[in-house]
Amino acid sequence: MLVAQASALYTLGIRDSIMIAHSFKGAEFGPAQQMHGATYTCDVEFCCPELTPSLNWVIDIGEASNMLSGVLAEYNFKNLNEVFPDENTTTEFMCRRIFDGVARACAGRFCGTIRVKLWESHKAWASYEGAVADYTRDV
User: Fold this and answer.
1) CATH number for position 42
2) Which SUPFAM superfamilies does this chain map to (predicted)?
């Protein structure tokens, strides 16, 4: 007989990418105050302690991929200064925006935790993680 560990989680991960342009406000950002582009790789992990009964999955991988693609389409090939005119669209900030979009898209279809990891290069990334049960955040 298998016994699940209290902290054990199943995880399903998907990946997509977007290309954006933006600049930052504040001397702390140095040369990034100038308009520049970035190609982000976006990893999203869906985590839950139990598989969906009878299906034995965390979430449908095709459905999850479509949700992420739909969320990223809002930002792909966009100048983020125009999408979020009053914000510094740092990698951390964008992680939360992507999380919010995915959480809204899967409300009622997934109950667990979502982790968004946004890679701005092969060396640097930021992430945001949160629960999506009864997700209702308005952004």
Assistant:
1) 3.30.479.10
2) Tetrahydrobiopterin biosynthesis enzymes-like
